[in-house]
Amino acid sequence: MWPRVVEFMLGCWLLCSPFIFREENHSGIDSYVDFGLGSLVISFSALAFWRPARYSHLATLFVSLLMILVPRFALSPEISPAGQNFMVIGLLLLMFAMIPNKAFSTPSAWQKEMPSQASQKT
């Protein structure tokens, strides 16, 4: 579940980023977007720890695509440092959201077969 922990930390970074990347032309709406998307990322990653909602981290894929594409088209030709931060966090979230919850565990189908194969060898 380590990818969910990293997603949680990136969501916390999104919550802090309006205070770190203060700009004169940074409107209050931009801060609300950072807070809203950071809260969504934290919610999706925390919800993935609950077994019935274990695939909720895949909703982060949609959020991360928004974070990558919106600054690229809305802020071009020159993207501010806050927009670049937004895009890099989106790329990181996109990368981590594709990693399954139990990335180091063997698949459950293999776990069912492994005890029977071990008994056949002896």
Amount of beta strand = under 5%
Main β-sheet: number of strands, strand sense, barrel status?
none
Note the run of SSEs as H and E. HHHHH
Unreliable residue runs? none
Helix content: over 70%
When the domains are counted, the total is 1
Broad structural category: mainly alpha
Total number of beta strands: 0
Number of helices: 5
Span between termini = 34 Å
Radius of gyration: 19 Å
Task: Round the mean pLDDT to the nearest integer and report it.
Answer: 82
Global shape:
elongated
Question: How is the topology of this model organized?
Answer:
Blueprint: H1 2-20, H2 28-47, H3 59-74, H4 81-97, H5 108-121
Helix pairs in contact: 1-2, 1-4, 3-4
Task: Characterize the structure shown.
With 122 residues, the chain is mainly α. The protein has one domain (2-121). Helix content is 70%, strand content 0%. The protein contains five helices and no strands. The protein has helices at 2-20, 28-47, 59-74, 81-97, 108-121. Helix 3 runs antiparallel to helix 4. The longest helix is centred in the N-terminal third of the chain and has 20 residues, at 28-47.
